[in-house]
Amino acid sequence: MSAEIDFYELLEVERTADEKVLKSAYRKLAMKFHPDKNPGCAESEAKFKQINEAYACLSDPQKRAAYDRYGHAAFQQGGGGGAGGGFGGGDFGDIGDIFETIFGGAFGGGGRQQARRGADLRYDLEISLEDAFHGKETEIAVEVSQKCEPCGGSGATPGTSARRCNLCGGHGKVRAQQGFFMVERACPNCHGRGEVIESPCKSCRGEGRVDAEQRLQVNIPAGVDNGTRIRLAGKGEAGPFGAPPGDLYLFLHIQRHKVFEREGTTLLTRCPISFTTAALGGEIEIPGLDGKVHAIEIPAGIQSGKQLRKRGGGMPVLQGRGVGDLVVEIHVETPTKLSARQKEILREFQATETGEECPQSKGFFERIKDAWTDLTE
Ligand SMILES: [Zn+2]
Ligand SMILES: [Zn+2]
Asked: Which of the 8 DSSP states describes residue 71?
């Protein structure tokens, strides 16, 4: 097990290596064998654990002295073990903790040189269904912090520059012994920057960024829907002290349309037809969002509420090929203003109705009659 391998060998350093050499060797190896870099590789994971064990021991002067004298025996069966305990068993506990303490946050990032990038921003934009159909080039104005031009984002008066923090020596972090571990914290003097600005830039008051209106050209692709998100890389808030900016996310909202409702790529509309067209059949014409007129055949005897589908009359597929369908829901209208002549014709028509012509209504009346008899009996 790990207990058999010499800690100095593991870290590939001389026995005389000083703290700095140890740390840099550890950092190099930890990066190489970190589980994030070697997903699923048990060998790397084991090696990563061993390296952490070795470094935790050798970076502590007391532990190191004990190790130099007694070797691994110093940490076995409680022999010579100090405050840490449980060290020799390979049960190292929270590797993540020590790793983060040393590297300062997320793997790969960390270190004061890679300052945090600016915040991501959200911008809500309402567009018409027509615009969603055709796509649109538009301009938006966003109030967002941007890199201060006079100081170039440094926060220092132009011509001057930030001075290295003398509390942390430019490290951005100060170290403190906390029980078994050496813990690093953000430097209270420079707040982790490693630098102090003695003469702050007047434009940004040392912030390195200023709020300003930004006008952005936005290209909205055809087929976008409610909730579609468009990312404008680097258009979010400027990072502090010249750090890279965040992203701007455009959230789209589609306005209600007078005629069409949208479900995915399907466009739905309701169309009134006369009862004569419903009875005799015919054709209706629907002007689509695509600018074309879609002729739709009405079969004779159609009922109110029936949906008719026209292939290809719907919304375009976002970043894809083809278009959805156009669905027309039929509503049969009952005439309200009949001329004397029309009434006469309809009465004549009514007289020809025997009930046989319309099997559905015949069944309906019989059912009502039965129900009525049941109630009166
Ligand atoms: Zn400092
Ligand atoms: Zn400035």
From this structure: G
Could you tell me which residues come within 8 angstroms of residue 200 by beta carbon, excluding any fewer than 6 positions away?
A: 155, 156, 157, 206
Instruction: Compute, in angstroms, the gap from residue 106 CA to the centroid of ligand 2.
Output: 29
β-bridge pairing 229-232 and 163-164: unpaired
The torsion angles phi and psi of 307, rounded to 5 degrees, stand at -105, 130
Question: Would you say 148 is a known binding-site residue?
Answer: yes
168 among annotated binding-site residues: yes
Which one, of 110, 118, 117, lies nearest residue 172 by Cα?
A: 110
Query: Annotation-wise, does 151 bind a ligand?
Result: yes
Q: Smallest Cα–Cα separation from 115: which of 184, 34, 207, 28?
A: 207
Ligand located closest to 154 CA: 2
Q: Do the annotations mark residue 187 as ligand-binding? A: yes
In tens, the pLDDT along 125-165 reads: 999 999 999 999 999 999 999 999 999 888 999 989 889 99
Assessment of whether the complete model's pTM goes beyond 0.85: no
Predicted confidence (pLDDT) per residue in 307-334, tens digit: 999 999 999 999 888 999 999 999 999 9
β-bridge pairing 293-298 and 307-310: unpaired
Average pLDDT score, the chain: 83
Q: Taking the CA atoms of 45, 48, 54 and 60 in sequence, report the sign of the dihedral they define.
A: negative
Q: Tell me the CA distances in angstroms from 276 to 56, 168, 270, 331, one per residue in order.
A: 90, 89, 18, 12
Distance between CA 47 and CA 155 in Å, rounded?
A: 44
